[in-house]
Structure formats: C-alpha cells, structure tokens
Amino acid sequence: MDLTSIFHQMSMHPDHMLYTVIATEFGLFEYKRLPFGLKNASASFQRLMSTVLAGHTVREGQVLPDPKNLDSIKNTMPPRTKKQ
Q1: pLDDT given at position 29
Q2: Does the model's pTM come out above 0.90?
Q3: Phi, psi of 33, rounded to the nearest 5 degrees
Q4: Residues near 33 by Cβ (< 8 Å), separated by ≥ 6?
C-alpha cells in the first residue's frame, strides 16, 4: 500500500465534491478523490487505516498479523481429503 498517495485513492461522497471546487482558466474543477489539506482529511485517513489494518499490529514501519490469529493458522490440521 502506498501511503504517500492514499489521499488521492480515497473516494469522496458525491454530495461533498462541490466543496472542493477549483476555478482555473479552463473552467471549474472539483475533486472526486480526497485531496490534501481538507479539515477532516487526516481523520478520514485514520478511520480508513483502522478498518484496513484491523486485527494487525503496526510497529516500526511493519504490518504484522495478530499473533493469536497466526498461532491458530499454524495449529490448524491440514485437510486429509478433497472434501475437507
């Protein structure tokens, strides 16, 4: 996941796009993705990351699976038949 451009990957609600209008010599443009600098952009980013990384441990620039989940996967018996 490229966190440096995550803002430009997060969709905005269509009703909120009109608040991001930019006037240029070519006309009016509005953002369809979350731009940098909006008041609640960092909170929206944090909420997205909490959802995406739920159940994982984040430390020192690494995303690690939850140790409890990892143990249960390691201790699962392999299937013995095709139906399992």
Answers
A1: 93
A2: no
A3: -120, 160
A4: 7, 8, 9, 10, 11, 12
Is residue 45 within 8 A of residue 37, CB to CB? The reply is no
Token pair of 40 as six digits: 């609640």
Confidence of residue 62 (pLDDT cuts 50, 70, 90): confident
Q: Are 41 and 35 in contact (CB under 8 A)?
A: yes
CB-count burial class (<10 Å; 0-12, 13-18, 19+) for 61: exposed
Backbone angles phi, psi at 41, to 5 degrees: -65, -40
DSSP secondary structure string for all residues of 48-76: HHHHHTTTEEEETTEEEE-HHHHHHHHTS
* Residues pairing with 24 in the sheet: 27
Alpha carbon distance 65, 71 (integer Å): 10
Name the DSSP class of 33.
B
